Amino acid sequence: MSETVGNGAGAHQGACPNFHAAVELIGRKWNGVILQQLLESPLRFLELRERIPRVTDAMLSQRLKELEAAAVVERVVTTTSRPVEVRYKLTAIGDRLAPVLDAVAAWGNEWAARGPSAS
After folding, report:
1. Residue 82, pLDDT score
2. DSSP string, 29-61
3. Reported pTM
């Protein structure tokens, strides 16, 4: 899970770039909660907005675009209805985040239950 960075005497062990990129993607503000909501079902923008009340429209839009660019979220446009319907859903690789997010949530609950002074 780690790789050697550099060569010769100055080489050192660094974090795996794929691991780092995944943690950055999931850990970016709002991404985790967006992904959790989409694990339940595909949702329209306003449905996501209602389920995540503290996120602004601009931030939600930006995060959805980033997750789409990362191929974790797919924007599905249905043109058979009027008005056109747009839903966001997880891709196959996005669906595979379910056990990861569940594990992070469980760890977070355990960590929070320890209280601020626990070490």
Report:
1. 82
2. TTHHHHHHHHHH--B-HHHHHHHSTTS-HHHHH
3. 0.80
